[in-house]
Amino acid sequence: MTAIEASLSGTFRTILVLVIVWWLLRFFLRMQAARQSGNSSRNTYAGQDRRAPGEVRIEQAPNNARPTQAKHSGPDIIDVDFEEVK
């Protein structure tokens, strides 16, 4: 066996080992994510939100969450993202 053949077979063996380790790691991470998704749905806000798609809800912000502005007499304005529908 020459040095080139030994290097080539070692390279393929290394690539094969890395692919197997990647598959196993991906498998275990997917199993862990599947286990956590059952428990986290009751803890996340999205799990509690039962609105229909496209339904809009306006909620009042708590008074203590608003930043205080010096000498501002107008209404409180909160910038939000929006999508223009034509």
Task: Summarize this structure briefly.
This protein has 86 residues and is mostly helical. The protein is 49% helix and 0% strand.
Description:
The model has no long low-confidence stretch (mean pLDDT 76). The protein is elongated and about 85 Å long. The termini are far apart. The protein is mainly alpha-helical. It is built from two helices and no strands.
Summary keywords:
86 residues, mainly alpha
Chain-wise SSE layout:
Blueprint: H1 3-40, H2 45-48
Strand content: under 5%
What's the pLDDT, averaged over the residues?
Answer: 76
Instruction: Describe the sheet with the most strands.
Output: none
**Euclidean distance between termini CA atoms:** 71 Å
Stretches where pLDDT is under 50 for at least 5 consecutive residues are none
